[in-house]
């Protein structure tokens, strides 16, 4: 067992050097690795089937209602524990929260909720499917924006937050709507993990997550850039799911890793890494998998991160994984 691991480490470290070398030819790697934008959102693969339909009450084509330029639109900060409406507040206690933004038109008195989330749930965005007929792990990891009429006050207020944080004009809202559609078309995959060098807030961030709270931060930033003041009376905390590692090394994409026999060992190692973590139906299963991944990572100190549809090796170090609920101020 020990012997096998040592041999594997040797083969892998050889490969990492090679790969790192080929990547660094273009000069210094930029950290955090920029999230890749696409020119349009591709159709989802029919293999990915949502257990719960995405955005059931939103407009099918993602249209956002047009507001009169002179309208005054209130902006709300919305936060509630993930799935808590279904499973009690277990996840609320460890602060896995979902974030959204609310809007209310003064002229029409209609209100709206805008959020960004996984098309096929968190488990599918965090762990791939190992399909026997395919060489490479298969990811159902798209995320998207959902805009729909109504704000469910009870849902947000009872175990979370519903707070007015600002006011914008109808013209500003219409500009924001265009930006959201652009952001939604070009930012297509969900990323659960934030990867950094250590828990010190000043440490290097290797990869940023791309999730519901990042969408909310981008939107607030856009609103602030339009000259709107955003103010909260309470601390604005958000969930972050961290991995801690030394400097990551680039491994390759599906075709370079899983399409070449020379990379067979690495391909097998990545599949083996993901083998025990199959996508899950329930949040309890997801939390169990986080514990499993924690054990595996502590023992082997390896993590294979999938980011921008490419694989990276993370040389993991203590405290390995952390879920925090920390303050990120409004812009
Ligand atoms: C995750 O993806 C699989 C494969 O498409 C699907 O069967 C399952 O329903 C998805 N899980 C959820 C919770 O949507
Ligand atoms: C974002 O894209 C998804 C997937 O194509 C779509 O269902 C949704 O309506 C879009 N949302 C917005 C606000 O454009
Ligand atoms: C949103 O509209 C619904 C339906 O009119 C109303 O019950 C609710 O209180 C409104 N919420 C906010 C935050 O404006
Ligand atoms: C808030 O949490 C309590 C306690 O877990 C739960 O019974 C209640 O249904 C939750 N409320 C909402 C609106 O989800
Ligand atoms: C982080 O950097 C800031 C500014 O350089 C400094 O004031 C602060 O003490 C640092 N924090 C830690 C924990 O090192
Ligand atoms: C995978 O990487 C190779 C080498 O960098 C590149 O030529 C190829 O276009 C990439 N494939 C995809 C699907 O991005
Ligand atoms: C919110 O974040 C701050 C600073 O990051 C932290 O001190 C505080 O305990 C957090 N609040 C909760 C309820 O976790």
From TrEMBL:
Keywords: Glycoprotein, Signal. GO terms for molecular function: hydrolase activity, acting on glycosyl bonds; palmitoyl-(protein) hydrolase activity. The keyword Plastid does not apply. It holds the Pfam family CLN5. It comes from Albula glossodonta. This is Bis(monoacylglycero)phosphate synthase CLN5. Belongs to the CLN5 family. InterPro entries: CLN5. Residues 1-22 form the signal peptide. GO terms for cellular component: lysosomal membrane.
